[in-house]
Design brief:
The complex is a heterodimer of chains A (about 290) and B (about 280). With about 290 residues, chain A is an alpha/beta fold. Chain A is about 50% helix and about 15% strand. Chain A has twelve helices and eight strands. In chain A, helix 11 links the parallel strand 6 and strand 7. The model of chain A has no long low-confidence stretch (mean pLDDT about 95). Chain B is of the alpha/beta class. In chain B, strand 2, helix 5 and strand 3 form a beta-alpha-beta unit. Chain B is elongated and about 65 Å long. Classes of the chains: A alpha/beta (about 290), B alpha/beta (about 280). Chains A and B meet through helix 2 and helix 7 of A and helix 1, helix 5 and helix 8 of B. The complex binds guanosine-5'-triphosphate (GTP) (2 copies) and magnesium ion (2 copies). One guanosine-5'-triphosphate (GTP) sits at the interface of chains A and B. One guanosine-5'-triphosphate sits at the interface of chains A and B.
Amino acid sequence: SLSERLTNIFDRFSGRGKLSREDVEAGLREVRMALLEADVNFKVAKAFVESIRERAVGSEVLESLSPGQQIVKIVNEELVRLLGGEQRRLRYSPQPPTVVLLLGLQGCGKTTTAAKLALAVRRDGHRPMLVAADTYRPAAVQQLAKLGKDNQLPVTLPQGGMLPPELCAVGVAEAKRLNCDVVILDTAGRLQIDEKMLDELKEIRKRVDVGETLMVVDAMTGQEAVNVATAFDAAVSIDGVILTKLDGDARGGAALSMRQALGKPIIYCGVGEKPADLEPFAPDRMASRILG
Amino acid sequence: VMLRRDLDDEFYDDLLEVLVGADTGMGVAETFVSALRLRVKTERISTAEQALAGLKAEMLEALNSRDRRLSLDQSPSVVVVVGVNGSGKTTTLGKLAHRLKEEGRSVVIAAADTFRAAAIDQMKVWAERSGTLVVTHQLGADAGAVVFDAIASAQARGAEVVLVDTAGRLHTKSNLMVELAKVRRVVERATGAPPQETLLVIEAPTGMNAIAQAHAFHEAMPLTGIVLTKLDGTSRGGTIWAIESELNVPVKLVGLGEGIDDLNVFDPAAYLDALFA
Ligand SMILES: Nc1nc2c(ncn2[C@@H]2O[C@H](COP(=O)(O)OP(=O)(O)OP(=O)(O)O)[C@@H](O)[C@H]2O)c(=O)[nH]1
Ligand SMILES: Nc1nc2c(ncn2[C@@H]2O[C@H](COP(=O)(O)OP(=O)(O)OP(=O)(O)O)[C@@H](O)[C@H]2O)c(=O)[nH]1
Ligand SMILES: [Mg+2]
Ligand SMILES: [Mg+2]
C-alpha cells in the first residue's frame, strides 16, 4: 500500500533528523506511482502531485513524527475533495418526463444499468419507461426486454426499420401515453472516434428533450478514460457518469480522470449484475479504493 | 509522434508517457526506456528516429519469439473463451466460428452462458451469421451440460472444433471462478483431454486490472492464449507485455471491430505500428 511504501522511504531518512524537500520528492514519486497503478491518467496523476506539492513540503509533513502517514492523509483529502464536490442523484426535470440518455463504449454495462436505474427511480416513487434503442447488437433488444419483463418494467421496442432517434421519440410518446415520468434510453455501445455514431447521439438529443445525458464507464478503464470522456462530452455534453463493475477489484483511477476531464459528477456505481446492484457514488470510499 | 527531436531527457519522458498511456504500466515502461537509454549510450545512437527504430526492433523481437498459433488438431478440438463481463467473448466466438468455417473446418458452438439475459439469443444470432450449428439449453440450465451436449453433437457428426462461450465473471468472485474448473472437467470427461485452447478475452480499454484478471483466470483454468478485443478503439492494450512475460501465455487473436470479419491473428508489427502511431 502507499502508506507502507512511504513509511519505508521515510524510515531511511529518519536517522538524519528532519526531512528535507528532496526526501518529500521521493515520497511524491511514490504517490504518482500509486496513482498510475490505479489507472489514473498519466497527465492527471502528474497534475495531482503538483497540486499537493506545496502542502507536502510544508511543516505539517516535515515536522510530523510520521511524515508518510501525513502525506497519505493529504492525498486522501485531496482525492475526496476532487471526487466529491457536487454530489447528487438523478436530476428530475421540472416538466415530466425526465429523459435519461445512457451512452458509452461497448460492453461497459449500459443495458444492465438501464434496468438498474429504472428500479432506482421506481423506488423513488417514479414510473420508468425503458427504451431499447440499440438496434445494432445481436439480441440487445431481447436483453432489455427480458430485464424489463423480469422486473415488471415497460419497454419500448423497435418497430419496423425504425432508427434509434425516431425510436427514442416514440419511447417518449409512449411514456406520456402510459403516464411514465422517467424515460431511460439504452443505446448501442460506440467508440468515441466513430463520427457516425456520435451523430446518432446528437440526432437523439435533437428528436427528444433529454434531461440527463449520462456516460456509463467501466471502472477498470485505463489511460484512455480522459480521451473517451472528452470526445463524448464534445459531441453531446455529458451531465454525469455512472461507474460500473465496482464489485471487482479494479482500483478505479478512471473515476478521477473522468472527474478532472469533465468537471461533472459520478452519480451512481454499478456493484453487480443484478437489477438491485446500483448504489449512489461515495467519494470517500472511491478515494481509499484508488489509493489502494 | 516522437521523431525529429533531440535525444534529451524530455525525449525519454515523452516515451514513458506514450508507453504508460498505452496501459503498459510504469514498470514495463521504465524497463523499456532504461534499456533504450543504455543502448543509445553503448551504440552511440544519435537521432530520435534511430533510437525509436531500435526500441521497436527490440520489442518486435520479443513479440516474435512466441508461438501464437491456435492448436486445433484434436478430434474434436475444444476451445473455451473466458473473461470478465463485457470483454467481447460471445462476439469473438461468432467471429472465430466464421473464420474457422472459411478455413474449411466444421464447427459446433456451445452456448454455455446460461445465466445472462439474452446471452443464448445473442450466441444464436452469431451462429446463424456464421452458418454454424449451436447447441443450447434454456436459461438457468447447467453450463457443463451444454458443453457436454455440444461435444457429443460434434463427435456424432465428426465436427472438428467445439467453441464454448461462457458467462462473463469478475475474477474476484471465487464461486464463479470455481465453476470454470467444472467446465474443464466436463471437457476432460467427454473428450479424454482438457480443452485444447482456453482463451482469456481481455479488452484493450482495460487498464492494470487486466493483469490481475489474467493471473486469476490462469489459476482457475490454465490459459493457452489471450484474445485482445476492441483494438479498433484508441486504447492499445499495453498490459499484454506484463501478461505475456508473467504468465507465458501469448496473445493469439485480436478483435478489431463488431463485424464478423473483424478478428485477426495477432500481428506484432501491426501492433507496434499502432502503439507508436
Ligand atoms: N459484475 C458486474 N457486472 C456488470 C455490471 N454492470 C454490467 N455488468 C455485466 O457486464 C456485461 C455487459 O453488460 P451490458 O449491460 O450488456 O453492457 P452494454 O454497455 O449494454 O454493452 P453493449 O450494449 O454491447 O455496449 C454483462 O455481463 C453484465 O451483466 C456491474 O456493475 N457488475
Ligand atoms: N469495437 C469493438 N467492439 C467489440 C469488439 N468485440 C466485441 N465488441 C463489442 O463489445 C460488446 C460486448 O461484447 P460481448 O461479445 O457481448 O461480450 P461478452 O464478453 O460476451 O459479454 P458478457 O457475456 O456479458 O460477459 C458488444 O457490443 C460487442 O459488439 C471489438 O473487437 N471491437
Ligand atoms: Mg447494451
Ligand atoms: Mg457473452
